[in-house]
Amino acid sequence: MTRDTDSAVKKGTESHSLRHVAELAGVSVATASRVMSGSSHPVSEQTREKVLEAANQLSFQPNRLARALVTARSHTVGVLVHDISDPYFGEIVKGLEDGIHAEDYRLFVASSERDPQKELDYVRAFFAHQVDAIVFAASSLTDAAYAETLEAMAKRFTDGGGVIVVLSDHLLRGAKVWFDNKRAVSEMVRYLHRRGHRRIGYLTGPSDLEVSLVRLAGFTAAAEELGLDVGPENIANGHFTAVGGGEAMGELLDRVDLTAVLAANDLMAIGALRRLHSAGIGVPDELSVAGLDDIPIAEYGPVPLTTMRVPTYQIGLEGASLLLKALRKEDADDVHVTGEIVERDSVATIEPEQ
Question: Which range of residues forms the domain containing residue 126?
Fold first, then answer.
């Protein structure tokens, strides 16, 4: 090692260029570039090891966008969620990140707040940054103009070699991790029925979300199957938020006599629990409450929540596996995951009315 290169290595706090790597390895800049970019141009294994060792000593990080010009791969993935502050999406993103990090991929996560235009703008931004794949971790919106535009954009992306992975009920086709939301809600209705409940209310999500419609269909189908008297007065929109869940719970209290309420997600259920607590209504002694998702805070609400566990972290991990297989052009079947009912303290068993 020369005095100059030895000095360069010792300057650990300074940034280093590809030229420094080439000098330390004793090769040309072009050769160093071929190794660091993953170019298909032939380089001997001995030379490759020298370049990588030099890069390691200098803590050199290649420019991903520059490398993309050579390899047509940016090693970046765009992830679209509705609300990154929602623990449901946080667990999915964590699973995705844990699943792809070892393969040197990085995530760009965007939160659309269920705004069709904002969601489309983020997809365009992913295109501009030349991501290799886009993961739609959230349900699609039901807006017709949005749907038409998104389908056209997705086709251009996949025609150009991009990969699409879907982790929720969505209009787009692509590698998919399936969780049967309709069945999950139906199972929760049947569970409440087994516990003796016949007068059941339902807190639904936004009507412009596909997953809301699917979960609502599960509630109405199970109610019909079990012969429950459920009408529009039994259903209130809680917008998938804790605040909305509390407000929707208040609406139900004003217009219908219930023994149990099922919320289409845990945030609404927690909001309902707080509303009932403030009204002096005991849970589960006077009214039972159940949720869906089993987010981490579900067991720490005013009353530990009985809920359907959706394996969000597993969904993220399975999504990462599908993503990597698709990027390697390997065949991969869709993955189906299932949930389980987690019983805590918010649902009581009652004698069914005759």
Answer: 74-179+313-337
CATH of the domain at 277: 3.40.50.2300
Q: At residue 168, what is the residue type?
A: S
Asked if residue 208 and residue 159 are part of one domain, the reply reads: no
Instruction: Please work out, in degrees rounded to the nearest 5, the angle formed at the alpha carbon of residue 105 by the alpha carbons of 9 and 211.
Output: 155
Q: Using an 8 Å Cβ cutoff, are 335 and 322 in contact?
A: yes
The string of pLDDT tens digits covering residues 7-65 is 433 333 345 677 888 888 898 878 877 777 665 578 888 888 888 888 778 777 665 54
pTM of the model: 0.80
Sheet holding 175-179, edge to edge: 106-111, 76-81, 133-136, 163-166, 175-179, 335-337
The verdict on residue 52 lying in a domain is: yes
208 vs 139: CA distance, rounded Å: 10
The dihedral of CA 48, 54, 59, 63: what is its sign?
negative
Residue in the block written with tokens 């991990």: 317
* CA atoms of 140 and 211, how far apart (whole Å): 8
Q: 152: which residues sit within 8 A by CB, 6+ positions away? A: none
**E strands, the chain, where?**
76-81, 106-111, 133-136, 163-166, 175-179, 200-204, 235-237, 260-263, 288-293, 306-309, 335-337, 340-342
Tens digit of pLDDT for each residue in 214-235? 999 999 999 999 999 999 999 9
Q: Is residue 348 part of a domain?
A: no
